[in-house]
Amino acid sequence: MEETYLLNVEGVRKKILHGGQGELPKFQDGSKITFHFQTLKDNFERTVIDDSREAGMPMEIIVGKMFKIEIWETLLCSMRTGEVAEFWCDAIHTGMYALVSKGMRRIAEGRDPLEGQKHRCGMGNMFDYHSTGYDDLDELQRTPQPLIFIMELFRVEEPSAYKRDTWAMSKEEKLAAVPVLHSEGNRLVLQKDFQRAAEKYQEAVICLRNLQAKEKPWEEGWLKLESLVTPLVLNYCQCQLELGEYYEVLEHTTELLQKHNDNAKAYFKRAKAHAAVWNEKEAREDFHRVAHLDPAMAAAVKKELKLLGERMRKKHVEDRKRYQGLFQHSTPGDATSPSPPSDTATSTLTSQRSQPPAQTGQAGTPSGGVC
């Protein structure tokens, strides 16, 4: 079935490619719409710009949440479940497409869609950064033009029928969700389910970071949210220590300390991560900072330094023995050109360097608990 008609919106035409089922769904604020889309240029070749099927995941928008391409909500609310329709939209409706497409592509690539943006509105960012990083989107940004959207509507869910993603929540809903997620994370830590606990802490941090993006850095509102973020990041890092993800701990604690260079617990967790990957000098420096910043943690630091010393001495002894064994295989009479190590020895050495032993937090110490 093909039918072409104008929607009651200026600059829009619709063609039904495949009819849907049943009545028009009840679209209300908070309803979640799941759909696939394809974006094409309005040229002879109908050049494809984006295709959600190629990205491997359908799109979702929440009705009433001011999606940046406002016309999409209007288009989708004219469709029945299972319907496939083609929409021609004039340039008055497509000016923001380059910016939105950039974000969707970054998500599909596993990157942060907000990476590199200044603290400004979306249109302001688009003017500040004359390049999106994608040549075809740069062309659209320079020359706004009509676009064709082919959409397939899968389902419409009422607000009460699905778990709200954090990005779809209001400010009040995000603030209410944070202490719940924090409490759930702490409960999972007590059960030693560190992976799921880390996910709860991470979700809470995302809620707060989304809210912080709307505040001016280092002003009162931003600082208040940051005070909620810090213990969640520390708890997340504790879980990663337990899971053996030491380099992730180094990354997050270093980032935290760039903003809060007097946080003893962050230094403590970073020191343990350094120790786990054999960074002895860095570990000792961080442990000493902890003792200086928080004398109450001196006993825990002393214990960790003792363990670090024992581990490093044991490692040095093992290394000496290993290297002595290598040189004992040298060709007789050729002191300057020892034979290369055997495959077994090389494999063992590589394994020792790349796979440090687990360094889990100690129950009852500042490293082992959560905030």
TrEMBL record:
Residues 318-371 are annotated as: Disordered. Its main location: cytoplasm. Residues 27-154 form the AIP/AIPL N-terminal FKBP-type PPIase domain. Residues 352-365 have a biased composition (Polar residues). InterPro entries: AIP/AIPL1/TTC9 (IPR039663), PPIase_AIP (IPR056277), PPIase_dom_sf (IPR046357), TPR-like_helical_dom_sf (IPR011990), TPR_rpt (IPR019734). It comes from Coturnix japonica. The keyword Metal-binding does not apply. This is Aryl-hydrocarbon-interacting protein-like 1. GO terms for cellular component: cytoplasm. Keywords: Cytoplasm, Repeat, TPR repeat. TPR repeats lie at residues 264-297. Residues 330-351 have a biased composition (Low complexity). Pfam families: PPIase_AIP. PANTHER family: ARYL HYDROCARBON RECEPTOR INTERACTING PROTEIN RELATED, PPIASE FKBP-TYPE DOMAIN-CONTAINING PROTEIN. It is found in: Cytoplasm. The lineage of its organism: Eukaryota, Metazoa, Chordata, Craniata, Vertebrata. One of its GO terms (molecular function) is peptidyl-prolyl cis-trans isomerase activity. The keyword tRNA processing does not apply.
